[in-house]
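User: If only I could read backbone structure tokens as easily as an amino acid sequence. Underneath my words sits a plain record pairing an amino acid chain with its backbone structure tokens. This is the protein in question:
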Amino acid sequence: MGHIECKDISLVYETPAGSVQAVKGVSLDIQESEFLCLVGPSGCGKSTMLNIVAGFLTPTEGSMQIGGKAVNGSGTDRGIVFQDFAQLFPWRTALGNVSFGLEMKGIGKVEREKIAREQLRLVKLEKFVNSYPHHLSGGMQQRVAIARALAYNPSVLLMDEPFAALDAMTRDDMQKLLAEVWSETKKTVIYVTHNVAEAVFLADRVIVMSPHPGRISHEVKITLPRPRDPLSVEFLETQKHLVGLIGH
């Protein structure tokens, strides 16, 4: 269900200054349960590609399928987590936020709260079900956002720099948590990041994009055993290799 095929995706924006090619000729074949990271400098089309897969943007050219079905617009087969903490509803508790999508689908209160509690357990927030976002730290709010994205059981999880606004220690903890969640749920993940070490820690495969126009310049498989040690020689060598590719 989570197999994603993007074929020759291009997107052109019309601006007052003229046409801007945001993405050009991007083709991706992402296997079910694969963890794929998109990296590259600002303006290379990473977030644009994520928004195309999410169904928020319509490509100018190309086609996309998820689970063998053509994608036209957004859908419940894709869960999305953004960087912004404001993605949570401040008037809802953690439980209320996670159960929101299920409520919109018409699932009964007992069932949706059972599912929401299970997802909060998955992200280690079972003791905070009745807490409001302003009572939670930034990392905890992002854990609620991940639980909410997983609650309606999408086959694909899309993440746009979800930990970029967190401090370094919290970010490290969140990366470890996400690796555990992915290992347990085996969702197909597309993850956008500027952080090369984060990509090496999380990904099965890293796609390096380059700007002018946004296109794929390199593809690197990460074969390091899990859980990964960011201080190992192999990890640091892989990180250095990726940094070098981004610079070219």
